[in-house]
Amino acid sequence: MATSTGGSTGPVEPSKVLDFLRVVGGLKRTKRTGWVHRGVDDPESVADHSYRMAMCAFLADGDAYDRNRVMKLAVVHDLAESLVGDIAPHQKVSNEDKARMELEAMERITSSIGHEAIAAEILDLFTDYEEQRTPEAQLVKEIDKFEMIVQADE
């Protein structure tokens, strides 16, 4: 990954890649709050959850969905939690506050990438998922629920 001359059209600067991956790595250490709250031994992390969602998305087949977009949505949908944590209903944070906190986190994360096109794509994917604008985002919402059921079964 060579250093970009403009920061927005060429490759991402290596130092920015490392910074971004450190933020993403926070998902590996963020346990799913619902499982922690219920006293589950060795609860999955947000990264565990997102990975299995991406694998579920990989199985999306047919002409009804853009499978690549479904996979990207699955990977990005909980990225804000690397900064704000996994906010669960029992924490009594209003939907408006949760949405604001997560959007601010995503803006912070994407602004640090140093590549306008990649940052815009990640933010668009996150916003699509939150607003349920596309059939792909709606499918990922269903995958999110399905993955939780699979995890509960385990």
Automatic annotation (TrEMBL):
Keywords: Hydrolase, Magnesium, Metal-binding. InterPro entries: HD_domain (IPR006674), YfbR/HDDC2 (IPR039356). Its cofactor is Co(2+); Mg(2+); Mn(2+). The keyword Transmembrane helix does not apply. One of its GO terms (molecular function) is metal ion binding. Gene3D superfamilies: Hypothetical protein af1432. GO terms for cellular component: cytoplasm. It is an enzyme of class 3 (hydrolase). Signal peptide: none annotated. One of its GO terms (biological process) is deoxyribonucleoside monophosphate catabolic process. Its EC number is 3.1.3.89. Pfam families: HD_3. Belongs to the HDDC2 family. Homodimer. PANTHER family: 5'-DEOXYNUCLEOTIDASE HDDC2 (PTHR11845:SF13). Catalyzes the dephosphorylation of the nucleoside 5'-monophosphates deoxyadenosine monophosphate (dAMP), deoxycytidine monophosphate (dCMP), deoxyguanosine monophosphate (dGMP) and deoxythymidine monophosphate (dTMP). This is 5'-deoxynucleotidase.
